[in-house]
């Protein structure tokens, strides 16, 4: 039976959902512009063997919106506080996509006592110096004009055309993006652009799986393969998918999460 709602942790209000049964405690972290519903096609494939906790990251979905600047660590601290509130004393697996994958890696680097392992799908660990100025200019325009003006280019980059065989899933993806608060979206992008997460990856001692999508132009496989080499106990895998892998390729995503957990049980 599922339960959840709104909860205040780390000075912010988060919407969360908890369901499933089994020995493993699994936390799911969505992509930029997503919400806990981004995992809806994956959860039924895992819930019989995992206790699952998912939430809307700060600024997204029904969680409290952001005004002003935040640090990337705020998202990590939110997640740690939620886990400790919902599952006190438990060590958890983390599975995250894009910015959610980066939160998972950051939490593993900073809280070895809390994290049993990580599966990161196209983790958004930062913005290179050569891209930073252009990215921040686009973020400022997005904040001013809203998500609707930018959605066509976002959709093609995150959800390539050849994977849009399920009209309902595609439409829900579109609606979640259009409903995003542009100020929160921009604030998280700026936090990510100023993050030094890659400098902390060598602190991770938990087992990690990094997954790339073969059609992900934003986080290409070659880039993620290099990232994986910076992590001590890391597997790397490429699947036939785009950027928003839990939405596009739920069967493959669930398979990789199950395999990662079974190879490294708590």
From TrEMBL:
Alphabetized InterPro entries for the sequence: AB_hydrolase_1, AB_hydrolase_fold, AB_hydrolase_sf, Hydrolase_4
Q: What keyword terms does UniProt attach to this protein?
A: Hydrolase
Q: Where is the Serine aminopeptidase S33 domain?
A: 24-240
Q: Which GO terms describe its cellular component?
A: membrane
One GO molecular function term of this record is: hydrolase activity
Q: Which domain of life is it from?
A: Bacteria
Pfam families recorded for this chain?
Answer: Hydrolase_4
Q: What PANTHER family would the database entry show?
A: AB HYDROLASE SUPERFAMILY PROTEIN YCLE, MONOACYLGLYCEROL LIPASE
State the protein's name.
3-oxoadipate enol-lactonase
- Could you tell me which species this protein originates from? Neorhizobium alkalisoli
List the lineage, top down: Bacteria, Pseudomonadati, Pseudomonadota, Alphaproteobacteria, Hyphomicrobiales
